[in-house]
Amino acid sequence: MQNLMMGHASIRTFEKHYLSRRITVDTQAVVRGIRPQDALMRAACTMSRTIDPRRPQRLTAEQSASVNDLSIIRNLFDRRERLKHKLAKGATQHPQYTDINREINREKQRQRHQLLQDITERGEYEQPVRDVENQLAGVESNDDAMAAVIAVDAMGPEQKELVKAAHAPPGETPEAEIGRRSRAIGAVVAYCGIVEGRVLPSRVKRSHDCVATSGKAGTITDRVPLQ
Fold first, then answer.
1. How far, in whole angstroms, is CA 162 from its chain's centroid?
2. Going by DSSP bridges, is the β-strand pair 223-225/210-212 parallel, antiparallel, or unpaired?
3. β-pair partners for 211
4. Which residue(s) pair with 225 in the sheet?
5. Which Pfam families does the UniProt entry name for this protein (predicted)?
């Protein structure tokens, strides 16, 4: 049925050109016959998305305020107003009024957390689709350009050139594409000579590897390594 629907002569066409080469299942659990760690595999397979600077980290002011329009929050507001009118003077100091305020704050916090989680999960599936569509259409997203600028600001000159060369758009002509590849290769070669990280200081020899050469008893004024 699959071959008929896709117009393939055999299943080999699908396996060669359509089947993903990325393994997203816990193969170790399959071999060992234990329960697969689905959450761990999902986190590992979406690692690049979790570090994407475009990934929502917090709600906007509008999104945060939108929870006040939820029915459950509106009902709590109504309960608080009815209690306020019932208690009349000094209502804000009453324990019941304090309790319902706490309940409102807890519920709003829970709804905001749920909203952020929903937005994040939806973005994990929608953003890759938008990236592919923009790439096929030859459109560079402003978000992509801004994220690249933010990342490049903290890099050294050689690393900046490497990032720019690696993320350069494909050339419109064969000559332009060859030039782009040549510049990328040159940037990689230039970056190979850069030492990343700091050099750790040499290890200081311990005191039992040295002996005193002068000074009063019980005081070490000079040390030389043991031969």
1. 22
2. antiparallel
3. 224
4. 210
5. DUF3435 (PF11917)
SS3 162: helix
Model confidence, pTM? 0.49
- Sign for the pseudo-dihedral over CA of 15, 19, 23, 25: negative
- The alpha carbon of 100 is separated from its chain's Cα centroid by a whole number of angstroms, namely 37
Cβ neighbours for 11, distance < 8 A, ≥ 6 positions apart: 2, 3
Whether pLDDT at 107 is above 90: yes
| HSE toward the beta carbon, residue 79, CA cutoff 13 A | 15
Residue 57 in tokens: 């980290």
DSSP state letters, 60-85: -HHHHHGGGGSHHHHHHHHHHHHHHH
User: What is the rounded CA–CA span in Å between residue 164 and residue 174?
Assistant: 20
Q: pLDDT for 124-183, tens place per residue?
A: 778 878 877 877 777 665 555 445 544 545 667 787 788 788 777 777 788 888 888 898
Burial environment of residue 187 by CB neighbours within 10 A (0 to 12, 13 to 18, 19 or more) = buried
Structure tokens at 92: 């804000």
Judge contact between 170 and 136, C-beta under 8 A.
Answer: no
Mean of pLDDT values over 96-111: 92
**Of 98 and 217, the one with more pLDDT:** 98
Rounded Cα–Cα distance for residues 44 and 28 (Å): 14
Residue 58 and residue 151 in contact, taking contact as beta carbons nearer than 8 Å: no
